[in-house]
């Protein structure tokens, strides 16, 4: 894993020795176990792992939606773990975009009003040139006056992506952004995310369980039992699928208290 000290590129976000636990006694769960990880500027990164591996917890801590028990979280040079509530609110507003699986659009607002809502709340006006570029990228120029119930699932998610991009955040986090979409709409959204990185230099971190979705990214980080166990660059669907099968088999073997299967060697 690339460390902050050796990386030539800039980390848009990073965690250092991050630990997060839930529950007590028999219900105690170590969701993140001393995780150190860089998420680099201008890259599309997928975070994958079996159910309960800690991938959503990691993203929520990085996005200032949750806090670890120990360790540090940074967005750029800003250390989240040292910030108060007001500073965290400003950072989430100005530096972080978030795309939810369930879209989270306001049903009474038009597509355009939903896209501009975070800026409106902050009392800011959009940069006209960037706004036009975002709208062109998401391909919604003829749907801006429509409300969410007048849009397809794929169009609603594109509105959500545009909302995350329009404030030009340092980093965008996407939580299973294609989970509620059919394969065609999902491919549209993934191509949009990919083009926002390739064409506009955006930084995106996506939690997903889908090897097809992860194959759109530059890098896949694999978690298991709250630890980063592997990563893959320029991944293919087949490589990702083999790795996920390996991690799932290891988890099943551990649960059954039998020896782990041999590695596939396909990392």
Explain how this protein is built.
The chain is an alpha/beta fold. It has one domain: Rossmann fold, CATH 3.40.50.300. Helix content is 36%, strand content 24%. It is built from eight helices and ten strands. Helix 3 runs parallel beside helix 5. The longest helix has 20 residues. The two termini are 13 Å apart.
Short synopsis of the structure:
This protein has 267 residues and is of the alpha/beta class. It has eight helices and ten strands.
Task: Tell me the layout of helices and strands.
Layout: E1 11-22, E2 29-40, E3 44-48, H1 55-62, E4 70-75, E5 78-79, H2 85-95, E6 96-99, H3 111-122, H4 128-138, H5 153-165, E7 171-175, H6 183-198, E8 204-207, H7 211-214, E9 219-224, E10 227-233, H8 237-256
Parallel strand pairs: 3-8, 3-9, 6-7, 7-8
Antiparallel strand pairs: 1-2, 1-4, 4-5, 9-10
Helix pairs in contact: 3-5, 5-6
């Amino acid at each position: 894993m690339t460390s902050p000290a050796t990386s030539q590129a800039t980390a848009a976000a990073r965690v250092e020795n991050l630990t997060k636990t839930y529950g007590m006694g028999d219900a105690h769960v170590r969701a993140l176990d001393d995780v150190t990880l860089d998420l680099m500027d201008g890259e599309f990164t997928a975070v994958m792992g079996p159910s309960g591996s800690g991938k959503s917890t990691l993203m929520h801590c990085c996005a200032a939606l949750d806090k670890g028990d120990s360790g540090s979280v940074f967005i750029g040079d800003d250390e989240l773990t040292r910030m108060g509530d007001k500073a965290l609110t400003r950072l989430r507003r100005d530096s972080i975009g978030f795309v939810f699986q369930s879209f989270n659009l306001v049903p009474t607002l038009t597509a355009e009003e939903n896209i501009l809502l975070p800026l409106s709340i902050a009392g800011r006006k959009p940069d006209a040139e960037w706004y036009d570029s975002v709208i062109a990228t998401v391909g919604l120029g003829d749907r801006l006056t429509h409300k969410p119930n007048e849009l397809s699932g794929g169009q609603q998610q594109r509105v959500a992506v545009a909302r995350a991009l329009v404030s030009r955040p340092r980093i965008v986090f996407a939580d299973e952004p294609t989970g509620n979409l059919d394969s065609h709409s999902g491919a549209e959204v993934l191509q949009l995310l990919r083009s926002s990185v390739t064409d506009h230099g955006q930084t995106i971190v996506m939690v997903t369980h889908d090897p097809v979705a992860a194959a759109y990214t530059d890098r896949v980080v694999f978690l298991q039992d709250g630890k980063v166990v592997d990563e893959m660059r320029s991944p293919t669907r087949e490589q990702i699928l083999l790795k996920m099968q390996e991690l799932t088999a290891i988890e099943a073997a551990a649960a059954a208290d039998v020896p782990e299967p041999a590695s596939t060697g396909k990392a």
